[in-house]
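In response to a reviewer's request, we include the raw inputs and outputs for one of the modeled complexes. The two entities were modeled together in a single run.
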Amino acid sequence: MSIAWYLAVSAIVFSLGALGVITRRNPLVMLLCLELMLNGANLALIAFSRMWGNGDGQILALVVMTVAACEVCIGLGMIVAIYRRRLPIDVDELRELQG
Amino acid sequence: MSSFLFFLAASGVIAGAVGVVVLRNPFYCVLALVAHLVSLAVLFLLLRAEFVAAVQVVVYAGAVMVLYVFVVAYVGGDADSIGERLHGAAGHRPVGSSLRLGGAVLAGALLIELLIALLGTGLEAINGYGAGYSPGPRTYGTPAYIGQLLLTRFLLVFEIASFLLLITAVGAVVLARRRRGLGDEDGREVLTPLDLLRPRETGTMAEGVGRLSQRDPAPRPSDGVLSAEEVTLEAGSRYPLA
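The model returned the following structure tokens for the whole complex.
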């Protein structure tokens, strides 16, 4: 398959992730949709890496995976902390910082 | 064969992504994401990124998703309905379909923009099959190749990533620990330099006379039985033991 097909799939996955981040209100699912966006970016990176026959894109994809794991770790820690404080797990209700 | 595998994996990827966005139960969302990740690993294999595909399956679909499943099991699978119940109790309407429609329009615009940016650039190489590839032990995408790049050209990136992981581990422990020594949300106590030498709740004389622990009325998890006063205190909460 030509590289363009992979890029189309990556664009679709990224947009689906953005749609989920906008519409879902559960922070857990929002984190999952962030993962979707990062995966779309990863697919584009690896497709371009294959296009040039150069490994730099793969290294960048591995770094993106590391950052995604860190983000998941912190995000889930925050969700557990929110749950411990018995706040509603809903991004529309958590508006303390809005002022 | 290659194109058949591509369409199979791509439909799996997109179906998994749709499942994450659409499904109501967060647990099913996590399962859909696992399917998405495994299909994505197949796409990576088709792009000759063997090591990244293996990392994707082992680290992402293995470790990170187990973390998600644990948190979903801890917080509760029906976490989505909690917000709606609160909305209904407060007399508010749930978030209307206008926001959802706006989100769909925005995502559609984003998709079109991305497709124009990625495919409409007129790059000749995009329509090709990529650079030449010859199988071998140290060619493009193998662990030896990735490892050599990581330890020579991208050594600084590698070290920064490891440092980021360390910071994250410490941060996650600080965020999700049980707050017992320090005060809770209203009665936050001041940390003094003595606390570094002598941690809280280790049987000091100040705690013996109840000066430090009287602000912490939450029962210990080992107590098991709640007194009547504590039951009324905890009646509105979702789980009884802090």
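As requested, we also summarize the result in words. The two ends of chain A are 52 Å apart (CA to CA). Chain A touches chain B through 75 residues (CB under 8 Å).
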